Amino acid sequence: MSNPPFGFGFPDPDKRPDDESSGAGGPSGSGADPFQQLGQMLSQLGQMLSQAGSSSGPVNYDLAKQIALQRLGSEGQLGFAAGDRTGEGAVRDSARLAELWLDEATILPTGASVTAAWTARDWIEKTLPTWQRLCDPVAKQVSSAWMQALPEEAKQAAGPLLSMVGQMGGMAFGSQLGNALAGLASEVLTSTDIGLPLGPESTSALLPKNIEKFTEGLERPASEVLVFLAAREAAHQRLFAHVPWLRQRLLATVEEFASGITVDTSALEQLAGQIDPANPASIEQVMSSGLLEPQTTPEQKAALGRLETLLALVEGWVDVVVAEATGDRLPGAEALRETLRRRRATGGPAEQTFATLVGLELRPRRMRSASALWKLVGDRHGMKSRDTLWSHPDLMPTAEDLDDPIGFAERLGDTGALGEGIDPIAELERTERAEGDSGTVDKDKDDGGKEGETDEDGGEGAAGWEPGDA
């Protein structure tokens, strides 16, 4: 973890929101009415306290949303001749063309039933439920660590004030989350730009305004860039829609990593001994010393390894499929492919924002290795065999396979795992039936041996597509 997750750091007081006015009297605001400023401050404070009283959970998401939308300001424009429906039409046409090209590059059918052009404000609205799922484990761990660190005498003396402390903590987390999401919303290009399915299911979304800014330094036509990005978004949606276990496993692995965050509460004792109440600078110095940064556990390292491998496999597959779909049709496809590869590999404000929110860098470090593996499997065994590997997690390449893609491709042929005599979907359904029967037995035991009850989830998870469907 290169950055501590929110709650462990403080915002830079020297940085102000882009849309914050300095007042009519210049940078110092000396020309503004001091009583008016005081009234605005009290009004905002009262609004924040009322929101804190109505919020539940470790993060005040209402406050986060309000701050994010305020920070975005005029970023509500759609782009591509904003103010009319030209942007929406361009996105729909690009997505329709990209889907036609992808039909020839993968056996996975179209995954999006809705194609949308989002503004940055739309992105905040549509992705906030997923961010809540990802950020809650971090905030809960941080809050509980601080509360557990208090001596029993302090807890008893505080009494009802502890709930107020929790509300103030939720406001602090919400404020930091809102500022971080505002920065992220101003630069993401699609709903799957950071590799996770943040938006609603079966919804393909592009952000034309951000794509315009991204296109400025590429020396490529905006329409060409839009079609290429639409193909990437559509490929992600096909994968998330027709590989039933993928969406849940990605999000669950992030949750697992975040829920494992621990704080060395003994550091609080050192903190108390180093702070001079008469010297506010000592507080900032101690907080920036790293005493309260979360400790990475072995379980977290294992979860991070699984997440990086799965992200690399997703991004590598999308990279290969989109290259095959657009390579002969878009003159600048290869240049755009390399640009996005570097953008994802080197990271940027988007990855830094996610590191601040959840505590990890969401970067597919081995995307090039994964691309080479998917390309090799497709060349040797065909598109159908390549995409059939997604039918079950047990068929997927591992981190070791990324080190030896040639060996993985050879083993597929030697073992006949993807041969004509074996139907991976039939094997998957057989495994799921066995797991469902096992789940029913366990449930009966838990319920005291009641008969006639079944595990509702026992039959779910079957692949929603058959090899060869296109």
TrEMBL record:
Top-level taxon of origin: Bacteria
Q: Where is this region: Disordered?
A: 1-36, 412-470
Keyword Hydrolase set for record: yes
Query: In which residue ranges is the amino acid composition biased (Basic and acidic residues)?
Result: 427-452
The record's annotation in InterPro entries points to: Zinicin_2, Zinicin_2_N
Q: One GO molecular function term?
A: hydrolase activity
Q: Which UniProt keywords apply?
A: Hydrolase
Q: Where is the composition biased (Low complexity)?
A: 1-11
Identification of the protein by name? Hydrolase
